[in-house]
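Hey, can you fold this one?
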Amino acid sequence: MAEEMIVVPESVWDLAENSVGAFFEIVARQPRKASALDHVDPRRMLRGGRILERFVSPQGKKLLEIGSGYGVNLATWIKRYDLDGYGTERETEGFASSIKASREVFAANELDPNRIIQVTDEKLPFDDCSFDIVYARNVLEHTEDPVKVLIEAVRVLRPGGILHAEFPNFLSYFEGHYFIPQPPLIWRWMLPAWVRLFGRDPAFARTLRTEMNPFWCRRAVREANKHYPAKLVSVGDEIFLDRLREPYNFDMVRTAALLGGFIRVIQRLNVGNWIGGLIVVAKGHYPIYLTVRREAA
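Sure. Predicted structure:
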């Protein structure tokens, strides 16, 4: 089936280039246009939807996107899957005017701009058991209390509903914000010290929740289960293994440019996926796709 693209106004492209693009030009030393493309290209959003489909069919579901950014992902999915979709957004450094931009995207695609809701903390402005799916992409590592966000996400899920969150694995080999290799991080002070070795400003590194890894996922779900019945479905290791078996499609333009050649070498050596298996055993797969199901009480 042909996949129709949504309309992204030129003003939103410009805003993305001059906000998130300008921010990561400093942090990651990547071109502004590449960073903007990663955040407002509807084709990238369709790839994320196909990963979600491994765990739940989004078709016709009621979905909440936490950290909906410029609104392109949510608008794309509403059109693609006929969703009853809502987004929450909290403007942060690098995402100035994201509320305004996302509402422009919605209006340009004949969607209700009021479905983008501005928030100021981890509390979600929805009743218990309101959604079939809660989705968050590259959001949790930027929050003040990611466990609280996870608990809130489970709270607003209906029994049988799915939380699907993507975020970096800080036990991995790559730091996706600064675009540099990294050793597995055990303590939070390590990342600022590490990026300084590459001549980078460590201020942004100090804001990242580097405790997030597969072990953290299990602890966080256990904590959520104390409040609402929740079951861990996956941390994404099987997705990582499957992607290594096939021609590797990167989710972000910047990552493809930096790591494409390295991954192709790994794949040539990865007979029987033995390298992927070792990485998974070491809990170093990247990224994490945390999937949690809310159980019946």
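Strands lie at 62-66, 84-89, 116-118, 131-137, 157-167, 174-175, 180-181, 230-234, 288-294. Let me know if you want another pass with a different chain boundary.
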